[in-house]
Amino acid sequence: MIILALNAGSSSLKFAVCCTDSNTFPMEGIIEKIGTPDIFGVLKNNGEKLLLTLGGKDHQAAIQVVLATLFHELKQSGQSIEAIGHRVVHGADIFHSATLIDDSVIASIAQLSPLAPLHNPPTLEVIKAAIALYPSLPQVAIFDTAFHQSMPEKAFRYAVPDAWFENHKVRKYGFHGTSHSYVSAEAIRRFNLCPDTSNIVVAHLGNGASATAVRGGKSVDTTMGISPLDGLVMGTRSGTVDPSLHCYMKNEAGLSVEEVTDTLTKKSGMLALSETSSDMRDIWAKHDQGDSKAQMALEVYSYRLAKEVLALLAAFPSKIDALIFTGGIGENDKRVRARLLESLAWIGFEIDHELNQVGGDTKGQITKSNGPIAAVIETQEELEIALQTKALCQ
Fold this sequence. Notes:
Blueprint: E1 2-8, E2 13-19, E3 24-32, E4 40-45, E5 48-52, H1 59-76, E6 83-88, E7 99-100, H2 103-111, H3 120-133, E8 139-143, H4 153-156, H5 162-168, H6 177-190, E9 199-205, E10 209-215, E11 218-222, H7 245-253, H8 257-266, H9 269-274, H10 280-288, H11 292-312, E12 322-326, H12 327-332, H13 334-343, H14 353-357, E13 373-376, H15 381-393
Parallel strand pairs: 1-6, 6-8, 9-12, 12-13
Antiparallel strand pairs: 1-2, 2-3, 3-4, 4-5, 7-8, 9-10, 10-11
Helix pairs in contact: 1-3, 6-15, 10-11, 11-13
């Protein structure tokens, strides 16, 4: 099948045309800085780059350009898109697997938008625009939260009144499910781990970040909670803070709940700590120039990452088999990887600095062979979206 995988972020739209017979991408690309005057897009067609001309700034305008361009390019080769798969960040406990999109699914995604305010609304824009342009094509929602529905109750329950859980679904959900699913399965394959008993921690580190304990190919715990705000320190997101912070800032600074949440979501994290940028490359550059804020920010980031990874080990009945780095930071930032592995040396990780420098050997491994495996595996969220879409549409 020829499937279009769409991955809408808060300010970006990744897209890929996947030929699922060969798991190849004849066309793929990204539109970045959506919502700003600096919006731009690039399409790679069999290796050749094409700049996209964008007539608007929002996600709806972006998807219209993407679909029109892809339709034209595919028509030239006598091909056409047979189905469209959409990554959706929050599906709560409503959606446990890939789901064909209809009006009721759209309504549920909208209803869940307060739990993922940076992601669900732009995804809805993309879904509605795609349906309007291709009403006859099957369109499938792939939920980030679905992979984590295997978590046991002891991992996903909060210690709150039962009525909150029963009536308002207050619990941990977890995110980055398409990435954690793909990368953990790929680690099992590459390193010949037991599919039923392997213990893997996947660290998906990007502007948004989460780590997940994967036991026998299934999520058993993860760092993000009811929303993608919890857990690790991220680009503009605070990660875990004291739950009383909202009340405290209301009383002390006169801020509303919405204002505190907006700050924790869009103006915190590495941006707030470094007072420089949310981009790790910029922060490392300041760090190397001796900037104390950048140095402190990276100390906090590294410490919290090690702390959360170690906490996930409580989900395993025996030793960890592999720690996998993925995402833009996980795949490209050798110093972040080195700092974490040095913190975990006491449980057996022995970093190979030469392999870490180049992003790993042919399998991605960056540790020496006499301890647990640490490796870099490029996430393929668009491929995972396409494969799940194909499975539902066949």
